[in-house]
Design a protein that fits this description.
DMT family transporter, mainly alpha, single chain
Length: 301
């Protein structure tokens, strides 16, 4: 029986797609990992440890590029870092107070909020298809957070919703901030993460804000260290370098499509490994969130 040979670009494309899909998987699993490592009193400490571990690596690899940044680029990157610190604070406090499944699905609304915010800034009306997709996603979130019966959304759900809005602000600011346009991704990300760590460390030093990084680290069990290293090495360092590598070998649309599967993996890990249960209403809501974000992405492409 004869076989047809695949075109040459196809296997190369899958070699690029596989690491990107791996990033989406680890990002989806990051919510369950963060939930396992973090408590209300250790949020700031865990954030300092998580990003403090990877910063020396980023700084060493990108030292020359960091020195090449102009003063204006440093100021712009630090401003973006302040927004980024708010995102991580909202996400981490949010995941402490909600399920990993809810966290991953609600944060995916960024893909709907960003085009809506961009349309408001540019005063270009979104298409009817996109508005319908946005409505589908919002309805999905309402059903998702009411999986156990119609009650007020939890504090964690609201914090994750605010985190999705903060991600939107970060994306729009990065796109419109002239001082960082043209800057390389590696030094720009390094300065942002460094600025965020400074914010976390200052908050840790304030009285009544919870454990210090040293106290949290001293109390960690082996499973906690495994979770922290997973967040640092895979969800931050590995994910960042894969994105830098893949964006030069694939199209932005393809990268977005693969990374957009993150909420699917968040739900899968929350249910399979975290023992979370959505119920019929919650499952319907999760399906609507995934359908709405996918529909919205296609409507804006």
């Amino acid at each position: 029986m004869s076989t047809l040979a695949l075109p040459a670009p196809r296997p190369r494309a899958w070699l690029t797609d596989a690491p990107l899909l791996a990033v989406a998987v680890v990002w989806g699993a990051s919510y369950l990992a963060a939930k396992g490592v973090t408590t209300q009193s250790t949020v700031l400490a865990v954030l300092v440890l998580r990003f403090g571990i990877v910063l020396p690596v980023l700084a060493a690899v990108g030292w020359r590029a960091l020195r090449a940044l102009t003063a204006a680029q440093w100021r712009g990157a630090c401003a973006l870092g302040l927004i980024l610190s708010g995102i991580f604070l909202l996400e981490t406090y949010g995941v402490v107070h909600t399920s990993a499944t809810n966290a991953g699905l609600i944060i995916s609304l960024t893909m709907i909020f960003t085009p809506l915010a961009e349309a408001a800034v540019t005063r270009v009306r979104p298409s009817r298809a996109f508005l319908a997709a946005a409505g589908t996603s919002v309805l999905g979130v309402v059903l998702l957070t009411q999986g156990g019966g119609f009650t007020a959304p939890s504090t964690g759900d609201l914090l994750m919703l605010l985190a999705a809005l903060a991600r939107t602000v970060h994306v729009l600011t990065m796109a419109r901030l002239k001082s960082v346009q043209g800057a390389e991704a590696l030094p720009l990300t390094s300065v942002q993460l460094g600025s965020a760590v400074v914010v976390f460390a200052l908050l840790c030093a304030a009285p009544g804000t919870g454990s210090t990084p040293w106290d949290a680290a001293a109390a960690f069990e082996p499973a906690d260290w495994a979770g922290l290293l997973f967040l640092s090495v895979f969800c931050t360092l590995f994910a960042f370098f894969v994105q830098m590598w893949a964006v030069r070998r694939s199209s932005p649309s393809r990268v977005s499509l693969l990374l957009g599967t993150e909420p699917l993996w968040a739900a899968a890990t929350g249910i399979a490994l975290g023992g979370e249960h959505l119920g019929a209403v919650g499952l319907l809501g999760a399906a609507l969130v995934l359908a709405g974000t996918g529909w919205g992405r296609r409507a804006t492409s």
